[in-house]
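Consider this pair:
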Amino acid sequence: MSKFFNTSNRLSALGNFGTDPGSLSADIYIPKNFPKNGPLVVVLHGSTQSAESYDLGSGWSTLADECGIALLFPGQRLANSLIGSFNWFETGDSQRDGGEPLSIRHMIKQVVDDHDIDPARIFITGMSSGGAMTSVMLATYPEVFAGGAIIAGLPYGTANNMMEAIIRMHGFGSPSDKQLDALVRGASEFSGPWPTISVWHGGIDETVDNINANSIVGQWQKIHKVEGPPTRVETVDDYPREVWCDAGGRVVIEQYIIGDMGHGTPISADGDEGLGEAGKYMLEVGISSTRHIADFWGLTGTREANGAKPKTAA
């Protein structure tokens, strides 16, 4: 067993969940205080991580206990990727109704059916390859999600093979915003309302250049009809938060660029509201992306929900 997949965790395996064309694993965490018709957050780990290690670092299950949130952790298998990376750039794993996206879709349906999840409050987040796969899921199954959060990730459809993926990760050759918009619109027959988007990236990320964060924002701006500069810029925990609001004043896109942070998930482990544990790619920078993403989605009770409700049930 790889050191990346050691298990000393709070998660439990999800048994059968329909067909699994992507050959993924699945773990869940359902807190004792989870209410009927409560929300679900799907959490995707990064390369060299596991569901358990990402939960430990990010603190999602701790927040789930606090706020009554069900969690689903799809996991990559080493047989599919020697570094445990989701295959977001492979044609067979980046389209609707096939490969890894369909496996994750079937997991979601199983958890919704088993635990009385509110189908209008399903969200997804991920870091690095998990962030790029979050982009895939938001594009290919937009009707499922009220919102998504992409951490150190890449836009949907920016690469179709390993070589292109490496080039895009280093910030070169990304399609135009117009092309990226068309890729999302062509990934399904959905016409809206679209998931809200939260983007997080390190300002000095040398693994996935932060130009990809701007490309993710650009990919979703036209879809949400919020092209141009941000509606406003505010300071949250000493970091800038850019927000784009729709015509009704609802925040549909937010972006955090964490200045001196490299490649990883921003955490804040100290204090009464601390979450997670610092480690490789889990970076203590004094702001908890986990808590603020949950705030953005209206799951913590401290901020009005910003998420659009999907049209169809899971």
